[in-house]
Specification:
Blueprint (H helix, E strand, L loop, with lengths): L1 E5 L3 H12 L3 E6 L2 H6 L6 E4 L5 H6 L7 E4 L4 H18 L8 E5 L3 H8 L3 H5 L3 E3 L2 H11 L7 E6 L2 E7 L12 H6 L7 E6 L19 E7 L4 H7 L12 E5 L3 H12 L3 E6 L2 H8 L9 E5 L5 H6 L7 E4 L4 H13 L4 E6 L3 H9 L3 E4 H13 L7 E3 L7 E6 L21 E8 L5 E4 L12 E6 L4 H7 L3
Parallel strand pairs: 1-2, 1-4, 2-3, 4-5, 5-6, 11-12, 11-14, 12-13, 14-15, 15-16
Antiparallel strand pairs: 7-8, 8-10, 9-10, 17-18, 18-21, 19-20, 19-21
Length: 472
């Protein structure tokens, strides 16, 4: 499959790297000579030029491509590139060629609403737009429940993958195989879907694998309430998360407002601090602004007197998501210095995520990482829609596969399906009688039904084989 990616920034290059790991034919196009130079170390064709020109799309082989993805920082440029790419593809392709799938990264939620209304494809000829904000906010919300969790990836229907380290305090499970360790844990061992040990390749561990301190693991679990049990098992101190937390949100921009909405929906009391009077007034005039548990404060979030006046130290957490990453970090650090125990960040720069962890920030989300996952999920249309790259365990991914009548798995128990050792089912997601999806544990005696979605973890080079097994 040939995939043309417009934009060789971090999102474009991360997508190219992930797709090449699956042995796909990838072409990168960018007009920035520095970005092109930086992308030369990837095993892909890199073209220097404007992705909104027909000639460069011809050079990229758009006629043979099955997917075109626009990932630049400009919504309008991305939309135009997708429209032109589809026209150029139709111009060059034969009657037997597949329709070009176009995916567009956007920041403006208006384009998302146009897609949801079914209008975007009509006027822009764009199949999917991806805005990572909602996914990033969900990850941030989940990750703020404990400082020991390094990453949280929601898979919908109350299903989560959490990444953390095994400590030397996990005396019941280290230096013994997982099968034996599970017998000593009430309720059994949490399901490990990926593991990375220093100096060794990432893997999907089986029952014979022996855990050691400092192993980095990815755990599949359902429900936020399960996090503390997992923390205890792997040697971390569990934290009591308040049922009605007090949350300070730094900034009343569109991101800050959406974060406020998220926590208000969860039953929290929210204080939004905004130094721009116009933004503060705009938020106050919205439906969110009239919420009885919301207070909007006009003032400088770096002014200690103002923070003292609003009782910042009495807040359970402070979240900063300003347009400038460094400004967000400064705001979170000051809140921490003034007594806030839990701090969160939404960042644009991935390199700053690890830095902020060393600074003592509780949890930070890389928005570009979420964008990459979301766009990869759209590219993998043969799957049931889910796709995620583990942040701290390289070369292990999660994909969603549909149990169809053709696959031969429907009606079989997980044990009878004889799945290979190189893959691990994290969740069975099933449509229940109420018409809603639920996530189930993949126990060996669980019977698979037609229409189930299986969230499966494996190395990316195994995806093609996985698709063959599920007849997609």
């Amino acid at each position: 499959m040939r995939i043309v990616i417009g934009g060789a920034g971090r999102v474009g290059t991360e997508m190219a790297r992930a797709l090449r790991a699956e042995d796909m034919d990838v072409v990168l196009v960018d007009s920035d000579s520095r970005a092109v130079k930086n992308a030369q170390n990837l095993d892909v064709l890199v073209i220097h030029g404007d992705l909104t020109t027909r000639e460069k799309l011809y050079e990229a082989g758009i006629g043979e491509a099955e997917v075109f993805v626009a990932t630049t920082n400009s919504d309008e440029r991305n939309l135009l590139a997708c429209t032109l790419a589809k026209h150029a593809h139709n111009e060059l392709s034969s009657s037997k060629s597949k329709t070009l799938l176009t995916i567009c990264r956007v920041r403006d939620m208006n384009f998302v609403r146009e897609q949801d209304a079914g209008k975007l494809q009509e006027w822009a000829k764009v199949d999917y737009v991806v805005n990572p904000l909602e996914g990033a906010i969900r990850r941030l919300h989940s990750g703020l429940r404990s400082s020991a969790i390094e990453e949280v990836i929601p898979f919908g229907q109350d299903a989560f993958i959490i990444e953390l380290d095994v400590t030397n305090k996990a005396s019941d499970i280290v230096f013994q195989c997982l099968r034996d360790a599970s017998k000593q844990i009430e309720g059994g061992m949490p399901l490990i879907v990926g593991l990375k040990r220093d100096g060794e390749k990432s893997l999907v561990p089986d029952g014979d694998f022996m855990l050691m301190p400092n192993d980095r693991i990815a755990i599949a679990t359902t429900g936020l309430s399960s996090f503390n049990r997992i923390l205890n098992i792997f040697g971390h101190e569990a934290t009591d998360f308040p049922t009605e937390p007090r949350v300070a949100v730094i900034g009343a921009n569109r991101i800050g407002q959406r974060i406020a909405d998220d926590w208000l929906e969860a039953g929290a009391s929210v204080t939004v601090i905004e130094r721009d009077l116009q933004l503060a007034n705009m938020l106050s005039g919205t439906e969110t602004g009239s919420h009885p548990k919301l207070e909007v404060i006009h003032g400088d979030h770096l002014d200690r007197d103002i923070l003292t006046e609003i009782g910042i130290s009495e807040h359970h957490m402070a979240i900063a998501a300003l347009e400038d990453d460094l400004a967000s970090i400064a705001a979170a650090l000051l809140a921490s210095d003034m007594g806030v125990q839990t701090t969160g960040l939404l960042l644009y720069d991935a390199d700053l995520v690890k830095v902020t962890q060393r600074m003592g920030i509780t949890f930070a989300v890389d928005r570009k990482r979420v964008a990459v996952d979301n766009m990869l999920a759209q590219i993998h249309t043969k799957t049931a829609g889910g796709y995620a790259i583990l942040s701290n365990i390289p070369n292990i991914i999660g994909v969603s596969m549909l149990v169809s009548s053709e696959s031969g798995y429907a009606g079989k128990r997980v044990l009878e399906a004889s799945f290979p050792d190189w893959m691990r089912i994290a969740f069975i997601q099933r449509l229940n009688t109420n018409g809603t999806w639920e996530s189930l544990r993949p126990s060996l005696d669980k019977t698979l039904l037609e229409g189930d979605r299986l969230i499966i973890f494996c190395s990316p080079e195994r995806v093609v084989e996985l698709e063959k097994r599920f007849k997609v």
